[in-house]
Amino acid sequence: MVKKKVCISPVWLVDGPAGPRTLKNSVDYCTRCNACVQSCPSYLLRREEAFSPRGRNQLIRLLLERKIKPQDNAVLLNQVFSSCLLCTRCTAACAGALPVAQHVLALRRATDKHMLPAGVKSLLRLYGTHPALFDAIVRLLRLLGKAGLLRLLCLLGLCRLPALRWIKHADDILPKNGKTLQHLLKKQHILSAAEPEALYLPSLEAQYADGQIGLLTLRLLADKKTQIWLGQACGLFEYAYGEQSLCLLQAKRLLTRWESASKRRSLPLLTDSLEVYLFLKHYPVLFASLPGWRKRAEKLAARVKYVTDYSFTFSSKKELPARSTALDASSWLYPPGPLTERARKIIKTHLGKNFVECEYSRFVVAVGGSAFTGSGPEQQTTFENVKDVARRQLRQVFCLSGWAALELDAALRRHYPQARARHIVYLQTEP
How many CA atoms are closer than 13 Å to the CA of 70, on its beta-carbon side? Predict the structure, then answer.
């Protein structure tokens, strides 16, 4: 619930397509034109003005101007700001490109609103602070999942405990036979280059849930000596879930490591995660109040690459059924921009007449750890996606986000097993 005392400052800087602005200035920029309303998944589900981007902006403005008291509207504020999926579809529809997701994050930090289960948040924090311990815990969880012991914990009722509630949903999402990236690298004797020509920052899903994503991404750099950064945090989860100081610490560590690797020449930094790519592109705004670090972040942002920046190797023998694919261009925190068009061109080139030329759904796929909640608007919107895929009789959906592909694929297996969801990198010939 919202605390009685909300420490929210109108001079906080928020990130957006127009660059950093103060929170008050950014919120006041809203003209209430209604262009964003029909693009918002939570509004389409609730049909209430307060649950639209425009409604959220106005609530924040009223809080900043102290025209409403948080303690008198605690239940409403909690529901409204918990239901935002941070999907940025409102920003894409807004003529002023208002970063409503950043406004919501500012309020969540001010109210100390925790969107993730305690166990998930603690685990993700370890990824940035103690990567070796994080790796050991994840490997243990994978072994328990393969042995069916996580399901047994659920049957025994232990997953009703607040710190363990997320395990049941995680066991549904994570593939039982998936190999970690580290395991696949050892199996295929792929080594990280000591004197690299390119750097690869794999996502969490590529490292621990579906190592094939990482392996196929590395194939894009087959002609380059590549250094693989396993266990390297970038600060994204800390930024989204309220730990601003830890976020800056992780960002500084990644910047320092990139500079160290780029002493001879500026190296490209490739990632398979849409969210990580867009977050790294916005690194300069993180350091808006630190001019020295901002200049360093600008150099890194100019060298960040996503998988669609490289040429895909297609297989002419790969058979795909009719109406096999559509494109999920959903993002988290930032609009994808030109990435969508590049991805659509890649898919259309590969599939030809089989390509269903549309973004397959009005509803965003829940990502960013919120999928572990197993309930609420995230799961409701995912179910709406499944209905849209079934209505259009699609057979395969390619996502720009690896975690979105895992979440949607799990829902499809439960409700519409004729279809699959996969990361876009799977368009390449599989090894």
Answer: 22
Please check whether residues 274 and 197 belong to one and the same domain. Answer: yes
Residue 1 lies in a domain: no
Asked if residue 6 belongs to a domain, the reply is no
Q: Are residues 187 and 154 in the same domain?
A: no
204 and 299: one domain?
yes
Three-class DSSP category at 324: coil
DSSP state of 198: E
For residue 65, give the 3-state DSSP assignment: coil
Residue from 50, 29, 22, 5 nearest 106 by CA: 22
Confirm if 241 and 113 have CB atoms less than 8 A apart.
no
Instruction: Determine the residue type at 165.
Output: R
Which of 80, 111, 142 represents a domain boundary (last residue)? 111
| Same domain, yes or no: 300 and 249 | yes
C-alpha span between 371 and 170 (Å, rounded): 8
Residue 198 forms part of a structural domain: yes
* Gyration radius from the chain CA atoms: 21
Does one domain contain both 185 and 294? yes
Running along the chain, 431 residues long, what does each successive block of 10 average in pLDDT? 49 67 83 87 85 89 82 79 83 86 82 68 80 82 70 62 60 70 91 92 90 93 92 87 82 95 92 92 87 94 94 69 76 81 86 75 63 65 84 88 85 90 85 55
Q: Are 386 and 411 in contact (CB under 8 A)?
A: yes
- Joined together, the tokens standing for residue 32 give 């209430």
Q: How confident is the model at residue 73, as a pLDDT?
A: 75
* Cα gap 172→300, rounded to integer Å: 37
Same domain for 39 and 19, yes or no, is: yes
pLDDT of residue 206: 92
What is the span of the domain harbouring residue 377?
325-427
pTM above 0.85, yes or no: yes
- How many C-alpha atoms does 105 have within 13 Å on its Cβ side? 25
317 lies in some domain: no
Residue at which a domain ends, from 279, 309, 339: 309
Whole-number Å distance between alpha carbons of 15 and 333: 10
C-alpha 74/C-alpha 126 separation (Å) is 32
**pLDDT value for 168:** 63
